[in-house]
Specification:
- The chain is α/β, with parallel strands linked by helices.
- The protein contains 13 helices and 13 strands.
- The chain has helices at about 25-30, 35-45, 80-95, 105-120, 130-135, 150-155, 175-185, 210-225, 235-245, 260-270, 280-285, 340-345, 350-355, and strands spanning about 5-10, 15-20, 45-55, 65-70, 100, 120-125, 160-165, 195-200, 230, 250-255, 275, 290-295, 315.
- A six-stranded parallel sheet has the order 10-9-8-11-12-13. Strands 4-3-2-5-6 form a five-stranded parallel sheet, with helices on both faces.
- Helix 3 packs across helix 4, helix 7 crosses helix 10 and helix 8 packs parallel to helix 13 (about 350-355).
- The longest helix has 15 residues, at about 80-95.
- The mean pLDDT is about 95.
Length: about 375
């Protein structure tokens, strides 16, 4: 994502503006709201935002002034259709909004939008570019589509707001989370070592590298950089696999399932660089200002989900010339139509390692796009 010069989104007035912004999931998409919300609030001191999102994602928004978080528990108070009406009632009674900004565009938010619209509020909903993305997957076009961040910004285009994408790190971390990570690293005796993060999993098979490849790459990175490797993940199955990957290796540590999301962010921000799939961890690392190497399979950066302010060379992938079937999916859902998962299997650990080695990722300074 290129950093644009400061610009003004429309010019109408300079009154105080209270906006309700809605984005419930997924983790990476919610994290990508942070540079947009922060970029708007940093430059518009009359702007106040209430963000409705899930409780898990609260750590992403630490330290942002004039941002009011409204936590939505869809497994409890706001479950089901009755929960949506309850959510509308509670949001409406919280404060008086000037407009609703829907950055999600799903059934739940459409119902909320109708309720708010019936109460007299204007609704501004994200254009996800679904038709363009379908054409990309079907091979009818092959060019970079608008980044999700740009689509978020466009949703605010009706207001008198200055905007610029902020420099990284965008994700701030609580002091207690930083202390917890610092203590753990000192206890492990690796405070002075090169720390590399590896996040090998995603929700979908089509964008997950074979686990044996990950293990071989870790060995190459350990030997090349004499590094200590931290492993990141989330789901219960991932925790078991990462424990197995780290067991018996004194220079590896699995963090999945052991720390809160806030503390995991503190660990991420201590890495020299991260190796990830097209996943939430890719976004968390990039938004934390960490050099992020991403291994792409069935998905493609052109669909608009590439890592924030990262050099293009950090996207490791098989070219469309070599594999005309890429990309075959926007988010990762589906199965390999070739049957051999070539987009990932052809990216051998040695191939990925050589590309990483050529990036000079341990050098100081910025080499963003």
């Amino acid at each position: 994502m290129r950093k644009n010069p400061t610009k003004t989104i429309n010019n109408k007035n300079e009154k105080t503006l209270n906006l309700l912004v809605i984005r419930f999931s997924s983790m990476g998409d919610v994290a990508l709201t942070v540079p947009v919300i922060k970029g708007l609030l940093d430059l518009n001191d009359r702007l106040f935002i209430t963000l409705a999102t899930r409780p898990l994602y609260a750590p992403f928004f630490e330290g942002i002034p004039r941002l009011d978080l409204f936590i939505c528990d869809f497994d409890g108070e706001y479950a089901g259709l009755k929960g949506i009406f309850r959510l509308f009632k509670n949001l409406k009674s919280r404060k008086k909004y000037d407009s609703v900004i829907d950055l999600h565009g799903v059934l739940r938010t459409r119902i909320l939008n109708m309720l708010f619209q019936s109460s007299g509020l204007n609704i501004h909903s994200i254009n996800k570019g679904r038709d363009e993305k379908k054409q990309l997957i079907r091979g009818k076009i092959f060019r970079p589509l608008k980044n999700t961040l740009e689509r978020y910004v466009e949703t605010f285009s009706s207001f008198n707001l200055k905007f610029n994408f902020p420099d990284t790190p965008v994700l701030m971390v609580r002091d207690d989370s930083v202390r917890e990570a610092d203590i753990f690293i000192r206890q492990k005796g690796v405070a002075d070592e090169i720390l590399i993060g590896v996040a090998p999993f995603t929700l979908h098979e089509l964008k997950t590298w074979p686990l044996q490849y990950t293990e071989q790459l870790i060995q190459l990175l350990e030997n090349r950089f004499n590094a200590f490797v931290f492993l990141f993940g989330g789901a219960e199955k991932e925790i078991m696999l990462l424990e197995k990957l780290s067991r018996g290796h004194p220079k590896r540590m699995n963090l999945a399932g052991k720390f809160s999301l806030g503390t995991q962010l503190a660990f991420i921000q201590k890495m020299k660089f991260m190796v990830t799939m097209d996943s939430a961890n890719m976004h968390l690392a990039a938004l934390s200002g960490i050099k992020t190497v991403t291994i792409w399979g069935g998905t493609h950066p052109y669909a608009g989900f590439s890592a924030y302010q990262q050099a293009g060379e950090r996207n490791i992938q098989i070219s469309k010339k070599e594999l005309p079937c890429r990309p075959c999916t926007v988010f990762g859902a589906g199965t390999c139509k070739r049957g051999d998962f070539a987009c990932m299997n052809w990216l051998t650990p040695q191939v990925v390692y050589e590309k990483i080695r050529a990036m000079n990722l341990l050098e100081n300074g910025s080499d963003k796009m």
